[in-house]
Design a protein that fits this description.
By secondary structure, the protein is mostly beta strands. The chain is 10% helix and 31% strand. The chain contains 3 helices and 12 strands. Helix 2 runs antiparallel to helix 3 (177-188). Keywords: Methyltransferase, S-adenosyl-L-methionine, Transferase.
Length: 234
């Protein structure tokens, strides 16, 4: 049997492309985002009582990957990008039904221009991602003290991030510059490069679209240097 799903909303976030999005929620705690409710779900009754909870489960679609299909095995970056494991033993984005989930802190609920907006933190979702459901995080059942994390038992190691003078001066002129600098630092500290690049000499200058910015950086492990920031599209 086949079933159809109608998104209840979409994500607004600093991540304008897949590159550099943290691989799990919580790795960039300063990255704030919003769920913009849509259609019949855009109703004050749907969020009644939600602020009793500190965290939410966001269920969403990996919409940018759906047309590319999926395979039974994947190569997780945490295993160096070489070892294959089953797709159901991973959180890979290429999945049979393209469904993902993130546990995020609830920052608040507001109504703006006829829209119901749920503000969240520690986001790991690309701007525009379709949201298919929202559920409260229940600590007594959702947190399992003796759970085993397999190959992902520990949080990933991070690199140090430093900013050259030009990006610091650019951000100093932005009224939200301090937050943007914090998010950029948290995101890049995860080292968003492909797994095969890590642990090797790398002379490439990378760029990522965050907020309305084009952020350029280089990597000389254990340091990532933000070399330039400019308005995206310039």
């Amino acid at each position: 049997m086949k079933y159809s799903l109608t998104p209840v909303g979409h994500i607004e976030s600093p991540y304008k492309e897949k590159f550099a999005v943290p691989r799990q929620p919580g790795l960039a705690p300063s990255a704030l985002a919003s769920v913009i409710l849509e259609g019949e779900a855009c109703n004050e009754d749907t969020v009644r009582g939600i602020e009793q909870f500190s965290h939410l489960w966001i269920l969403f679609l990996f919409d940018q990957n759906l047309e590319q299909g999926w395979t039974p095995t994947v190569r997780p970056p945490r295993l160096g990008g070489n070892e294959r494991i089953g797709v159901f033993a991973s959180r890979a984005t290429f999945r049979p039904n393209g469904i993902g989930m993130s546990a995020v802190p609830l920052k608040g609920v507001r109504k703006e221009g006829g829209k119901i907006i749920i503000d969240i933190g520690s986001c790991d979702l690309v701007d525009g991602t379709p949201v298919i459901d929202i559920k409260p995080y229940i600590p007594y059942s959702d947190s399992i003290e003796d759970a085993s994390g397999g190959y992902a038992a520990e949080a990933p190691q991070t690199l140090d991030v430093q900013f050259d003078p030009q990006p610091l001066a650019f951000l100093a002129k932005d009224k939200d510059g301090k937050n943007k600098q914090q998010v950029i630092g948290e995101v890049l500290a995860q080292d968003p490069r492909p797994a095969y690049k890590k642990g090797k000499a790398d002379t490439k200058e990378y760029a990522v679209h965050l907020f309305d910015l084009n952020v350029k950086f280089t990597v000389a492990e254990p340091v990532i240097t933000v070399t330039a920031i400019e308005a995206f599209g310039e």
